[in-house]
Amino acid sequence: MTRPDFSGWLARPPYGSEAQAKDAAMTAAMNELTEWHATQCAPYRRMLTLLGAAGHAARTLDEVPYLPVRLFKEMDLRSVDAQAVFKTLSSSGTTGQQVSRIHLDRDNAAMQTRVLGRLVGDALGHKRLPMLVIDSPAVLKDRQAFSARGAGILGFSVFGLDRSFALDADMRIDLPAIEAFLQRHAGRPLLVFGFTYMIWAHFLQALRERGLCLPLADGVLLHGGGWKKLAAQAVDAAEFRRVVQQCTGMTRVVNYYGMVEQTGSIAIECEQGRLHVSDFSDLIVRDPVDFHPLGVGQVGLIETLSVLPLSYPGHALLTEDMGRIDGIDDCPCGRRGKTFTITGRLPKAELRGCSDTYERAA
Amino acid sequence: MNNLEKYDATFVDTLMVGRDALAALKYQDVEAWDSVGHMQLMNALEEAFGIEMDIDDIIAFSGHEAGKGILAKYGVQL
Amino acid sequence: MNALLERPPAPAAPALPLTVRAGGPLQTLDRRPMAPFAAPVLDFLSALSHDLLASPDARRHPDIATFAFWCRRGHLQPMAEAWARGPARVGRGLVLHIAPGNVPVNFAFSLAFGMLAGNANIVRVAEVERAQTTVLCAALQRRFADPRHAVVAARNRVVQYARDDTVTAALSAQAAARVLWGGDRTIAHLRSLPAPPRCVDVAFADRYSLAMLDARAVNEAGSQALADLVRGFFHDAYLQDQDACSSPQLVVWQGEPAACAQARQRFWPALDALLEREYALAPIHAVDKLVQLCRAAAALPQAQSSVRHGNRIHRVQLQSLPAGIEQHRGHAGFFFEVDTTGFEPLAGVVDARLQTLTTFGLDRQALARRVVELGLTGIDRIVPVGQALAIGLVWDGHDLVSTLSRIVEVP
Question: With contact defined as beta carbons under 8 Å apart, do A12 and A25 qualify?
Fold first, then answer.
């Protein structure tokens, strides 16, 4: 079977498809990808058989067979020869925790960059902006083995000029470096980039402690990486934005949702504050009780679909995030497609008292 | 040094390749031209020619040959 | 008591970095053994049983209620009488118990077994404390505080400490017996810690269990019998999320293919109906089971199909029983399934890991005889579906009162 090629999709506007057309195009693409990975990846083929999904195409998007994202922490799944793998991404994880291993070949990696470029370009414009990374240069130290943070920063560096780091090697705020950067680019719009928790814990807190407000009013803050740690400290998106404005003057704060298992096809927050699914990806919300697809507004398990995974069978993944679809083709920003909200992570199993098993589901 | 010489020299200095390897050289062909190397090369070319390239052009800059066409867009004749 | 009998306790051990969850300081532990089923121990366990059954906390946990019920005088007294008829026995001395993390109530059973065999006991509970552990330690502490149980209180401790070989080794060094619960690696590691030359080790290692159902019996069962079967299976499998070593991981249908197919059609939907009424599935388990399904697909060529009842029941149909099936466990309602005619095909894969065989519609005595005849290295108990979790003094093939006490022989 010839390898699927969706590079033609790059020519289209990234949020141009209306629901019906998108469903049809995405379902067809998913079927092609399922077939491709089934021919290329023996373990994946076996899984399709056991899931009862082998040999017949999905008629609707929710029929596309999906893998649990955790599988990539347990198994090496790839759809290309080992020699063709030129980069392996790994998810961040605390020591002792298994990390996902995503095997990329050159074409897969190149396509990810192009799609990411399309999407970020749509959000921030196509000119590169002086870029301040809220992290430490140490994160890119080991060129052979980037952590998820390093890979993310590198991936987004394409959009930046004179990429500079706001934190020193000890993760402390580097005011001289920041000041020098601001002087070099005085009067220009700036891009500030980082992971949500890093920004909160190492940048904003440090500024607050010193009672500082940096002159970044003309900047845009692009941040991703999840709200879980902030939620644990009872900081929500509204509070985050408030403190960003207080400490940097920035009012343009753009969140994105993405995962290492589907790099490139991220969902970016629009001017109206909604996360948008692009034409390169899709989203389904499933009821945990039996995985049936839920409707708009209902909270369930998020499944993400992406046309990018070609060197590994990651095109349809059931995540461990909970969330809901907020609307379809109806965002005031004008971009078509689904908008969604992530409500939290799937709770770990309660160390049950057996009494739980006898209580009715709420 | 004319533009082409400057262009080639930037490649040689940033990616540590020989001049004779340049004609056929593409992104990811050599270890030094990984994503980090790419950013370094783009930076170096921008500084050498006093230009600022667009995101799409940075992404599309796939090799020594292709790069010539891209630099032309910024008024750099090679 | 006169001075001769009132020997002081053994010399105090140096203070160890651990927390005592029930009982006094370690240094004052009285290690003197007693006869099995000694009156103070029966009195204590009976009082503990009452305490637990009267406590609302304890009643919220069916596994604690089961333990409390097991400790009642009506259950232990007949056993005491049976043992009294045998040769003179006395406990071995101090028994160190390393309790399992997966089944919280087992530390209490282990302690009770040690006591009933006539021993002083130190039980280490898991660092990550479950609700049941907290409830049970509180009850033990209350009963220890009662002066009527001073003799038992002096001889027993429940302790907690982060995994620390120095501590375990220090405790091992004084043990006349060790009761070790855990995975194979944990057990191997614990065994390697030095113990006195005559120390007896009882290991409860990783075990695997299965259910064997006779297809015809299932097909012919009346609605009440089917309801009882399904409830029994629910109890065996879902109560501990299949974490207990006696929870069934594999369901074997005994009979002709058509009968087996029909029996499956009767059994699983009936179980699902019960689950829908009485079981709250944790969403994470739905994901866990999808992961298990994919893992089984990749690892087991014999896995030919799967059936999912919502996310409550996941079944993987095996073409045949592979050797090493015991490496594949289910969790929270995930079962391997296979058809067989007769016991022999099953016998081919039985190894030392196989602990409990729960049955329906089969002659258990006959099966037990086959185990012996075939010289199988596994299957320690054959019980009806519903009894899988019923732990007792004969466990994992060990008669614990025998093993943890010694005979004073007067030939």
Answer: no
pLDDT at A361: 25
What is the separation, in whole angstroms, between the first and last Cα of chain C? 30
Q: Would you state the pLDDT for residue C198? A: 93
For residue A354, give the chain C residue with the closest CA.
C61
Local structure of A54: helix, strand or coil: coil
Distance CA C117, CA A306 (A): 63
Cα separation, C119 vs C200, in Å, equals 13
CATH 3.40.309.10 fits domain C208-384 = yes
- Domain spans, chain A: 111-257
Q: ipTM value of the model?
A: 0.90
In what side-by-side order are the strands of the sheet with C313-318? C303-309, C313-318, C334-340, C248-254, C208-214, C354-360, C381-384
C246: Cβ contacts below 8 Å, ≥ 6 apart: C207, C209, C236, C355, C356, C381, C388, C389, C391
The superfamily (CATH) of domain C3-206+402-407 is Aldehyde Dehydrogenase; Chain A, domain 1 (3.40.605.10)
pTM: 0.85
**Regarding the domain with residue range B3-72, which homologous superfamily does it belong to in the CATH classification?**
ACP-like (1.10.1200.10)
User: Which pLDDT score is estimated for C219?
Assistant: 98
Nearest to A117 among B27, B43, B56 (CB): B56
Q: Confidence class of residue A292 from pLDDT cuts 50, 70 and 90?
A: very high
pLDDT at position C15 is 79
Subunits with at least 3 CB pairs below 8 A relative to chain B?
A
Give CA–CA dist A337/A323, Å, rounded: 16
Q: Determine how β-strand A219-224 pairs with β-strand A190-195.
A: parallel
CATH 3.40.50, domain A111-257, yes or no: yes
How many CB atoms are located within 10 Å of the residue B66 CB?
12
Per-residue three-class SS string for chain C: CCCCCCCCCCCCCCCCCCEEEECCCHHHCCCCCCCCCCHHHHHHHHHHHHHHHHCHHHHCCHHHHHHHHHCCHHHHHHHHHHHHCCCCEEECCEEEEECCCCCCCHHHHHHHHHHHCCCEEEEEECCCCCHHHHHHHHHHHHHHHCHHHHHHHHCEEEEECCCCHHHHHHHHCCCCEEEEECCHHHHHHHHHCCCCCCCEEEEECCCEEEEEEEHHHHHHCCHHHHHHHHHHHHHHHHCCCCCCCCCEEEEEEECCHHHHHHHHHHHHHHHHHHHHHHCCCCHHHHHHHHHHHHHHHHHCCCEEEEEEECCCEEEEEECCCCCCHHHCCCCCCEEEEEEECCCHHHHCCCCCCEEEEEEECCCHHHHHHHHHHCCCCCCCEEEECCCCCCCCCEECCEEHHHHCEEECCCC
Between A117, A143, A162, which is nearest B55 by CB?
A117
Nearest CA in chain A to B28: A106
Percentage of chain A surpassing pLDDT 70?
94
Would you say residue A270 has pLDDT above 70? Answer: yes
Chain B, nearest residue to A114 by Cα: B59
| Residue burial C212-237, b: 16+ Cβ < 10 Å; e: rest | bbbbbbbbebeeeebebbbbbbbbbb
Interface test with C, best of A50, A318, A355, A360 (most C CBs within 10 A): A50
In the predicted model, what is the mean pLDDT of chain A? Answer: 90
Domain ranges of chain C: 3-206+402-407, 208-384
* Beta carbons of C62 and A358 less than 8 Å apart: yes
CB contact under 8 A, A159 and B36: no
DSSP class of A260: G
Rounded CA separation B49/A185 (Å):
19
Over residues C268-286, the pLDDT tens digits come to 999 999 999 999 899 999 9
